[in-house]
Amino acid sequence: MTPQGPGASRGALWGWRLFDWANSPFPTVIVTFVFSAYFTQAVADNPVEGTAWWSGAITISAVLIAILSPPMGAVADQTGRRKPWLGATTCVMAVAAACLWLVKPEAEWLLLGACLIILANVAFEIGMVFYNAMLPDLAPPERLGRLSGEAWALGYAGGLACLVIALFGFVKADPAPFGLDKAAAEHVRAIAPLVAIWIAVFSIPTFLMTPDRPRTGKPFGLAARDGIRTLKKTMKNVRQHKEIVKFLVARLFYVDGMNTLFTFGGVYAAGTFGMSPEEIIIFGIALNVTAGIGAWLSGMLDDRIGAKPLIMAAIIGMFCAATPLLFVESKLWFWIFGLPLGIFFGPAQTASRSLMARMSPPGQSTEMFGLFALSGKATSFMGPFLVGTVTALTGSQRFGMATIAVLLVIGAVLLLSVKAETRLQPPAPRPIR
């Protein structure tokens, strides 16, 4: 069965949406909130050493993602099908995540933990290349925003649901479930297999229900050669894709600002406002709720006003919400200005995906989403470097975090020059089947 855009079945669309629900616990539970804290605070001898190992693992994975995503996307376009590639990366991610159970709270396990995080994170991000590239085949352009927004909202919901289970079912449970030994941190380590099982179970509908492109019939070797040749041609004739390049350059900055804001938000909350790890996790849960709401609403707005205006509005919203956080003093005001940030995270992310889907040339969507992944990782070191450097030079976290606002502004200014749709035709009155 091949995808037919407007004719894609309701089951096919839900199968695609549910993959966001399936894989989002990995970045939410493993990378951002639970396992990262365990790794830096319990596995390492001290938080400084743990942070160095963790940031090193994330940096190495970002470099590998930037190198591998474009050629793998180009090769996938030559083979035709995306689901075999998506299945392979999903299996690698789930297995690597499950193996994090082996990482005991002793420094001798730092290397294994870092290697597993690198492997799982690379598999997660490259898998998103193939997953995102399926989007243009499942809905017409005037409905891409809605479909992308609903999927992203489900992703936030999935990450939130798994985080709640991890927090209250394992981390805070007393006694620990299944006879887990808290002294050996088994109640925290068990979250890794939980995430792996979640990914494996909830990704099944995508592979059973969502159609794929037919095979081109090319042998893998020929597909690889043709894919690399096509990618080289795309890079050589980059002026033919000038607007895509301008969009991806703008995205380098505003996504780096967003990711840095999300990554260092907990550090800032703890260091400047004295929030405990438990308070930070609760704030993370609340932030995922507002982000999910924002992503869901953005799908409807995207299809009505266009993706570019929605991204611009989201960047402006993040700037306006984040700036007061540099000046307020109390936890209450941190909550008041911090939670609205989530409303704007979702629209910026989901509208970027739908804009890339609309701008991708026919037959090159996976290659273009490989470049899309590159634009999200090529300068991922820049935000953390600026925050860390300015904080060290000034002795103030507030000045360090202020550099994020600069990245958002640069991204918004560059996005202004991108020629993209400003308003789409209203969706047809007939609902998607």
What does this structure look like?
Helix content is 76%, strand content 0%. With 433 residues, it is mainly alpha-helical. It has a single domain, classed as Up-down Bundle (Growth Hormone, Chain: A), CATH 1.20.1250.20. The longest helix has 33 residues, at 47-79.
Assign the structural class, choosing from mainly alpha, mainly beta, alpha/beta, alpha+beta, or little secondary structure.
mainly alpha
What top-tier CATH class fits best? Mainly Alpha
Estimated share of beta-strand residues: under 5%
Give the CATH superfamily.
Answer: MFS general substrate transporter like domains
The residue fraction in helices comes out at: over 70%
Instruction: Tell me, rounded to a whole number, the average pLDDT.
Output: 85
CATH architecture: Up-down Bundle
What is the count of helical runs? Answer: 19
Our count of domains comes out at 1
Keywords:
Growth Hormone, Chain: A, 0% strand, disordered N terminus, mainly alpha, 76% helix, 433 residues, 19 helices
Helix-strand blueprint:
Layout: H1 10-23, H2 25-33, H3 35-43, H4 47-79, H5 83-99, H6 110-133, H7 135-138, H8 144-171, H9 186-189, H10 191-202, H11 204-209, H12 220-236, H13 242-273, H14 277-305, H15 307-322, H16 331-359, H17 365-377, H18 382-394, H19 397-416
Helix pairs in contact: 1-8, 1-10, 2-8, 2-10, 3-4, 4-6, 4-12, 4-17, 5-6, 5-10, 6-17, 8-14, 8-16, 13-16, 13-17, 13-18, 13-19, 14-15, 14-16, 15-16, 15-19, 18-19
In short:
With 433 residues, the protein is an all-alpha fold. It is 76% helix and 0% strand. Helix 2 packs across helix 8.
